[in-house]
Specification:
single chain, about 180 residues, alpha+beta, four-stranded antiparallel β-sheet, 6 helices, about 35% helix
Amino acid sequence: MKIKCIRRNVIIGIIAGMMISCNTNNTDDNNSVIAENNNVMPSNTLKETNYSESRNDIRFAGWTDKEWVNNEYICTVRKYIDKYLNGEIVESNFDENKDYIKGKFLVISIKPSLFGGVFMHIIFFDNPKNVFSVLVRSDVDEDTGIVSDYECMGLKLEMSDADITQEIILEFLEEYPNHKLW
């Protein structure tokens, strides 16, 4: 029993760590960095050069932990899965996982994608041993900063033997109430 409790606490800690590490958004320009041509430079160097903001800099400007756990990217995944399950869209790569993707899911990691939008890992409450990856793209108007046209680019089973249970998910949600099942 003690080993199970320790393992459960470790798993909850890992999930929390993934969320925290993926969602930190340092607003201090002196400490943030950008990657350009495989070089990393302080972003305050931008003012001294002709580099411009990336589209992801525009997409996620000012995001706090609250935005990282509740946003249109996650809503897009929920809407897309619901449309698939209701037969409104055909998604052949979902077919093999149809039995796994019913019900609500928890986002266990989310981060900006180099393809424009976010890349996330999700688990479904009814089948928490399966971890799926999903890419959600969006367009951004560089002049106005308006983000639009969110598009789910697919759902892929990444792991089918995760050591996560419904009990662990419920404990996580109790400990981190800003997260929720979608």
